Each structure stands twice: as structure tokens, then as C-alpha cells.
Amino acid sequence: MLATLTSLAQVSERIILKDTLVSADTANMAFNSIGSHLKAVQVAAYKISGTVAGSVYMQGTVDGINWVSVTDTLTLTNVATSTKTWTFTATYYNSYRARFISSTGTAAVTAALIRRADE
Questions:
Q1: What local confidence, expressed as pLDDT, does residue 65 receive?
Q2: Cβ neighbours of residue 13 closer than 8 Å, sequence gap 6 or more
Q3: CA torsion 19→20→21→25, rounded to 10°?
Q4: CB of 56 within 8 A of CB of 27?
Q5: Nearest 5°: phi and psi at 58?
Q6: Distance (Å, rounded) from C-alpha 102 to C-alpha 54?
Q7: What is the pLDDT of residues 21-33, one digit of tens each?
Q8: How many Å apart are CA 6 and CA 18, to the nearest integer?
Q9: More confidently predicted of 11 and 91
Q10: CATH architecture of 2-115
Q11: Which residues contact 89 (CB under 8 A, 6 or more apart)?
């Protein structure tokens, strides 16, 4: 599954992407061409059914093809809600994404980004 949004707005903004993971599944929620002034990305997984397990990786790319992990990982466990916020003091990549990988269970997942406008 792929959820993506491109935004070049000149005001402070918050962008929220949503998807659902079912059993062994992957969701890539990408924030493309975000410019500078990234402040934070928050991810969450909300258990719907089964035993939820998996991981969420925060990744960045310069070329739009090769993604690298840029922070630590959120491990999804069998709880009602798993959430994590990563804060950024500088933006080094053109695009960022939250990569959700599940092995079991069904979960609704979200990724939210907040940034200031470019000066």
C-alpha cells in the first residue's frame, strides 16, 4: 500500500496520512518535497483485531529512490495503541516517509508531519 502527499505551502502546516495494515503488510506514508523546517513526525498504530506485531521506520531520501533510516524504530506490540514522535532540528532529506511493516493482526495506522513554512 502507498499513501503519499506533496505539499509546498508557504504557511505552517500539519499533514496527516492514514492507511490500514492487514496481517503481513507494508504501508509507506511519504511526505514528498517538504522543503526545510521540518519540526516533527508522529506515527500511530491502532489495533483493530488479532495480535498486532511489526515495526515502523522513519526514513529519508535525497533522490526519491533510495531510502535510509534516519531515527530509531518503533516496535508495534499487541496493545490498543502504539505511538511515537520523532523531532527534527534540521532537515537533511528532500522527502521523508514512515514505513510500517506488520507481521500479524489488523491495525489502522497514521503518520502526521508538522513543519514551518520556508523563509
A1: 93
A2: 7, 114, 115, 117
A3: -50
A4: no
A5: -95, 120
A6: 4
A7: 999 999 999 998 8
A8: 15
A9: 91
A10: Sandwich (2.60)
A11: none
Place 9 in a pLDDT band, splitting at 50, 70 and 90: very low
pTM for this predicted structure: 0.84
Domain edges within the chain = 2-115
Task: Print the SS3 string covering the chain.
Answer: CEEEEECCCCCCEEEEEEEEEECCEEEEEEEECCCCCEEEEEEEEEEEEEEEEEEEEEEEECCCCCCEEEEEEEEECCCCEEEEEEECCCCCCCEEEEEEEEEEEEEEEEEEEEECCCC
Give residue-wise pLDDT tens across range 40-75.
999 999 999 999 999 999 999 999 899 999 999 999
Grid coordinates representing 15?
Answer: 499533514
Strands 25-32, 2-6: pairing is parallel
Lookup: cell for 20: 490500514
Q: What is the pLDDT of residue 14?
A: 83
CB 97 within 8 A of CB 104: no
